[in-house]
Amino acid sequence: MKITKLGHCCLLLEDAGVKLMTDPGSFTIEAQEQVTGLDAIVITHEHQDHFHAESVKKLLEKNPHAVVVTNAAVGKLLKDLRLEHVQVGDGESAEVKGIKIEGFGKDHAIIYGEMGKCENTGYFIAEKFYFPGDNFHVPGKKVDILALPVAGPWMKMSEAIDFAKAVEARVAFGVHDAMIQTFFRGFVGNILKMFVPGTEYVALADGEAREF
Predict the structure, then answer these.
(1) Can you tell me the distance from the alpha carbon of 34 to that of 108, in angstroms, rounded to the nearest whole number?
(2) What single DSSP character describes residue 41?
(3) Whether the Cβ atoms of residue 96 and residue 82 lie closer than 8 Å to each other
(4) Nearest one of 135, 120, 118 to 175, comparing CA atoms
(5) Which domains occur in the chain, in start order?
(6) What share of the chain is helix, strand, coil (3-state, %, to 5)?
(7) Confidence band, pLDDT 50/70/90 cuts, at residue 188
(8) pTM exceeding the 0.90 threshold for the entire prediction
(9) Concatenated DSSP letters of 95-144
(10) Residue among 15, 14, 63, 13 nearest 35 (CA)
């Protein structure tokens, strides 16, 4: 699988001739809106850094055959925009051109009280790649490649470490990291390498592509 990190949580996944995008949000507008050739757009939840409505509309104009895969909460917002979607929530699945997309988890991680509460769905894609969105829901399946959240108001680094330990992926790279200074991302990687030696940790820079 080839993965290009556009930034934060917006990724391009290319596998078996199928091209998917995850979480086109407000932190990566310029990069994501240039993408063509998409078969699917996968959205974990409704927060603006994961779902930028205007970008989704523009992407669908450029990629008219792309399917939006998301949960019921984001689906309602798409319906209000008169945009179609395929619903995949917790325990549900769908296929896009032979690529299986499975949903895991129901809730966004707690920030404080009611703040930021919404439906959050992690997605296991192509039987190899797992992107949890804003939660540390363990899918209970063998994960080859893990998109690992490493910063945010809803998490601690210790939780990211414990999550990586629980998932036991072959390789992981950091996401949800737009708020981290670029020079500090290497330090985060070193912490993960120290405490999760069984998983190879790769630091992907914004705009960087890599074959996994």
Answers:
(1) 29
(2) E
(3) no
(4) 135
(5) 2-211 (3.60.15.10)
(6) 25, 30, 45
(7) confident
(8) yes
(9) EETTEEEEEE--BPPPSBTTBT--B--EEEETTTEEE--SS----SS--S
(10) 63
